[in-house]
Amino acid sequence: MPTLNADLAWHLSGPLLAVFYFTALSLSGRQRGLQFLHDWARTQGFVLVSARRRLFVPHWRWRPSKGYQFFRVTVRDGDGVLRANWTRCSDFSPIFPRTDPTTMDVIWDDPAPQIASA
To answer: What is the per-residue pLDDT across 68-85, written as a single tens digit (0 to 9) for each?
Structure first.
């Protein structure tokens, strides 16, 4: 019996380590993506209100998604107006080192408000 338990533990250790590794990798990439979004919002004059990572998005269907992560983002502009967008940015993963961490695509739900000139 001890041999059976040792064999079972040995056979389960590989898949468990793989699940742990890929979960840690995903969480790390998500955290770096959120930090990137915070920095982007600040440089654009926005405050990041919420950012949720999404697997299925209405945009970029026909473009390769390997090496990218997608977020549903809500920001507040300087006038206090909430604006929402879909954002595609690098996965920040060592598995896809060729992705450029400064590459970012943003599709706003509505166009920027126009300021009437006097």
So the answer is: 788 999 999 999 999 999
Reported pTM: 0.68
Residues 6+ apart with CB under 8 A from 32: 92
Say how far apart CA 74 and CA 82 lie, in whole Å: 7
Question: What is d(CA 92, CA 28) in angstroms, rounded to the nearest whole number?
Answer: 8
Query: Within a 13 Å sphere around the CA of 24, how many CA atoms are in the beta-carbon half?
Result: 7
What is the sign of the dihedral through the CA atoms of 53, 56, 61 and 67?
Answer: positive
Residue 54 region, left (φ>0) first, then alpha (ψ -120 to 50), else beta?
beta
